[in-house]
Amino acid sequence: MKESTNENLETLFQEMKQPTFIEYHIFFLGDISDVEIRKLASLDETDSIKNIQRIYCNYLAINENFFHCASESLSNPLISYNETSKTKYFDQMEEGLLSSILSLRVLPQVRYLRDNQDCLHLAQRVSKQISQIRNRVAREFSREPAVVLILERREDPLTPLGIDWSYQSLISELTEFVDNKVKVNNEEFNMNLIHDQFYKDNRFKNYGELANNLNTLMKKFSAQKDENKDLDNFEDMQRALHKMPEFKKQSANMKKHYSIVSQITKQVNSRDLLNLSRLEQEIMARDNTSAQFREAQQFMSDPKIHEFDKLRLASLLSLKYENSSQRESLVNSMIQNSQDKDEFSSLIEKLRRKCGRSSRILQRGTSNIGDRARNFYKDFFGVVLYNFINRRKTRIFMSSIFLLFQSWPEISLKIT
Fold this sequence. Notes:
The chain is mainly α. Helix content is 50%, strand content 10%.
């Protein structure tokens, strides 16, 4: 199974010139042109290629309605990109985006953020591929109208700096979480939505709701365990044996979530994340420079607060009050007690330059980056999404979105 990159195709062409195996069944993770298929056929002189299939799975699906391309963001202010690395990341994003589009069997319109060169470049690459696919195999795709909207991470720099209290986000933030697998105390757990009903039902629950639901699950499991102790006759034993596989599965699942939640609780308590999150919410929702900096200073001087949390807090204040005359002196005073104050200062400045108001398109001219902040403990909409769903802001938002090409009639956006 290969990605249809030039390097992989060239390796495959060389293999077909001198085949190692009697039969070949080839599966591509992305699209492949008819020209390349014909070249493979011409090189297959021994008729050893028995099957060629396109499998559009060159992306990682986290939820039913969310996936990512497993690539670095070009908006990362901490990384300097040369042309080679930039091309690599564009290739990854294009492959992942096309793979998701093709697996959904749609040929959408492409929209991108006006005046943003990275969005324009990716939109051009994707739309070119979609046009080629439409010319070849349009009959295989649905004609239902669809839109790909390409935006820039820097338009909403606050969301990644805040703590999201949903179970899924806490797992990602506070544990070793890679490719839907969690590692806790040298044990690895698979967070599979298909086979784990508790995780599926509680992934978007907040920290408090999660703890209550886990406690309910443990009580239910204990009650079932007590039932199996009273086996008075053969029928009771037979019933207990019949339930044993499901009982063992529930036991393993409960142990998994108990281990994960215990690890999350340990991190929350040791890093004082509840109080820290309260301050983050205060910073986003209100203007109170002196009080917020004073409380932030107390967190920065607290040795039990994680260095990463200190950096997030200082970055949040720097972005919120970037035009304040006191910003630089206050931020510098905050990081004086940090172990890596020079590195902190450099990172905060890079973030401000890359994600500050002058670099954002949708928020130019707004008075306050936190004007549209919501309650972090319950629900938080990023600025871009909030603009999109807010009736009063829709016209302003859509004026910044440019239509690259139109494949079918314009979609009517009905915001209720």
